[in-house]
Design brief:
This protein is mainly α. It has helices at residues 2-23, 28-46, 53-58, 62-86, 88-97, 100-109, 116-133, 147-166, 172-196, 206-228, 235-257, 264-280. The chain has 12 helices and no strands.
Length: 283
Amino acid sequence: MIYLFLSILSSTGIFILFKSFKKYNVNTLQAIVVNYFTACILGSYLYETEIDPITIANSTWFYRAIFLGFLFIAIFNVMALTVQKNGLSVASVAGKMSVIIPIIFGIIVFNESVRFIKIFGIILALIAVYLTSIKERDNIVLTQSIYLPILLFIGSGTIDTLVNYFAPDDKIPLFSATIFGIAFCVGLFVLIYKSARKTSRFEIKSIPFGVALGTINYASIYYLLKALRVDGYETSTVFTINNVTIVAFSTLIGLILFKEKISLKNWIGIIIAIVSIIIVTLK
């Protein structure tokens, strides 16, 4: 359970950093690229065996890691566009509700248990995610660019599912590092392209924020994969607890650190989240 707790803590830290980006006017894309580089280096360092690029390129999971690296960058851009076109609440709900995809995948592919109490807990968790994420202040326009939240929903759920399904049990640090390395290369190409067109200049302050983000971003994925491999915990249970707890924690931290307003719906969502976690963890 310690792995799941560390994953939740790291993912909540990502929320705090993204909030800080806005406060200190950090270039998000630049920090994201630095973040991927940092996560790649960290994963390589934590892999205890000597790294051989040729062996990696010939491994069965290499092309899967390349696909996921491209998907990481693509879904990040979709998320940014969703926030701009449809509002923050729509992006948040679409991203977090995508947890249903790895849950269904776990039940179908891994033949995980389907008990009434567990299904009831998962449904409660989805309701909690919606109520906790929604912000009454946002100007939500679902009819505008409706395809964006749909793509975000599918993309986020696909990433969670495939990272777990593709990751080799004995090479989690190396697999994660490869994904982040590919994402870094793609992001670096975008930055160079923008720089050549003189649409943006690299800012030094993006480096420390990117390094901090990369450290906790790597930790969130590493510990989530470790939690998914603990005997006795099913994929559907881990993903449900992980997502709903992150949403609840992030909302409370927004209240405490950033003085955000929490509506009655948000409080109800937090309470339902706690209830759903208790139900889902029941054996």
